[in-house]
Amino acid sequence: KAGVTQTPRYLIKTRGQQVTLSCSPISGHRSVSWYQQTPGQGLQFLFEYFSETQRNKGNFPGRFSGRQFSNSRSEMNVSTLELGDSALYLCASNEGDTDTQYFGPGTRLTVL
Amino acid sequence: AQSVTQPDIHITVSEGASLELRCNYSYGATPYLFWYVQSPGQGLQLLLKYFSGDTLVQGIKGFEAEFKRSQSSFNLRKPSVHWSDAAEYFCAVAAGGFQKLVFGTGTRLLVSP
User: Fold this and answer.
1) Helix (H) or strand (E) holding A111
2) What does A54-73 look like in DSSP terms, one character per residue?
3) Distance CA A104, CA A5 (A)
4) Is A104 helix (H, G, I), strand (E, B) or coil?
5) Which residues of chain A approach chain B closer than 8 Å at the C-beta?
6) A79, A83, B26, B88: least surrounded by Cβ within 10 Å?
7) Coil, strand, or helix at residue B94?
8) Pairwise CA distance, residues A93 & A32, whole Å
9) What would the mean pLDDT of B19-24 be, rounded to a whole number?
10) Residue B9 backbone class (left: φ over 0; alpha: ψ -120 to 50; beta: rest)
11) What are the chain A neighbours of B34 within 8 Å (beta carbons)?
């Protein structure tokens, strides 16, 4: 099976812009979780989608949003970027049979 | 609320020596616990997990972890460290479902020759 794919791998944006990140989970997995990783705050849960519905949400402002498509691919969007949004954004493909998350390589976002 | 504490920010171990990384969790019920490893610039790789049953769990790459409810701990061990084990290690607890993990701050392992 192919692993979790995240695109793009690297992104540079300026303050005020918006950005969209994409995640393709492992084939057959219907749930996707997103995390933000920064040196200061560590790994923090953003949200989880299952069958196109958001099931869980972390403590992030409304500028952070996501969606999931019928093929289970997921996107997350950050609007009005701030310098503090610079981070590694990780997507996890959730396997219900084993209650396990499999992580992608991440998208490194730099906000200038 | 669920939380995870990894008290050691950095640990240096000689190659071939044994390793123990500490993890303490806070959770009311029986926790789902995980250990992940992250190499520089990479995503997280699952080493092992504990849900229930035998409190000593075996993982990949020769790692094991022991769940101790009385101490709220889930320490990761390896009998003999290899240079390729140098990475950052994260302990995590499931917060209301395995799809939402609460991570510790991580322990960076350095392996000296």
Assistant:
1) strand A107-111
2) EEEE-S--TTEEEEE-TTS-
3) 6
4) coil
5) 4, 31, 33, 35, 42-45, 48, 50, 55-56, 58, 90, 92, 94, 99-106, 108
6) A83
7) strand
8) 5
9) 98
10) alpha
11) 101
Which of A9, A30, A35, A43 is the best mutation test for B, with the most CBs of B within 10 A? A43
Lookup: tokens for B79: 């009998």
Question: Which of B50, B45, B46 is closest to B33 using CA atoms?
Answer: B50
Q: Express each pLDDT in B49-104 by its tens digit.
A: 999 888 999 999 999 999 999 999 999 999 999 999 999 999 999 988 889 999 99
Chain B CB contacts of A55 under 8 Å are 99
Taking all residues of chain A, what is their mean pLDDT, rounded to a whole number? 95
Residue listed under structure tokens 């492992």? A26
In the structure encoding, which two tokens stand for residue A110, read together? 């730099």
Beta strands in B1-113 (DSSP E): 3-5, 10-14, 19-21, 24-26, 33-38, 44-50, 56-58, 64-68, 73-78, 87-94, 101-103, 107-112
CA dist., res. B56 & res. B112, Å (int): 28
Asked if A100 and B106 come within 8 Å (Cβ–Cβ), the reply is no
